[in-house]
Amino acid sequence: MGRKAKLDKKTQINLKLPPGLIAWLDRQPVSRAKLIETALVEYYQIPDWALVRRDYPVICLTCLDEFTTSGKDRICPDCVYSSEHADIAG
Q1: Is 79:73 a contact under the CB 8 Å cutoff?
Q2: E strands within the chain?
């Protein structure tokens, strides 16, 4: 049996920022990632519970039905496997 997946595991992203902002971030005693994370959480007042990765409801871009996902899925499983929507779903 393997380990349980961490719900709060952080994911690396690529982010383009102006050189002056990067220089400022590098002069700070805290890591770039921590500064950006703290700024976003405080500016947008994101509650702690929203920072834990979990399943959440989204609307399918194809059929407009609501479904639940924990990833970046925006097309429901029914439409992904439907021949009618195969060209849209990929």
Answers
A1: no
A2: 56-59, 66-69
Write the pLDDT tens digit of every residue in 12-38: 889 999 999 999 999 999 999 999 999
- Residue pair 46/40 in contact (Cβ under 8 Å)? The answer is yes
Q: What SS3 class is residue 56?
A: strand
Residues 67 and 57 sit within 8 Å (Cβ to Cβ): yes
pTM over 0.85: no
In the chain the first and final C-alpha atoms are separated, in Å, by: 33
Cβ atoms of residues 85 and 79 within 8 Å: yes
Please report the pLDDT score of residue 8 as a whole number. Answer: 64
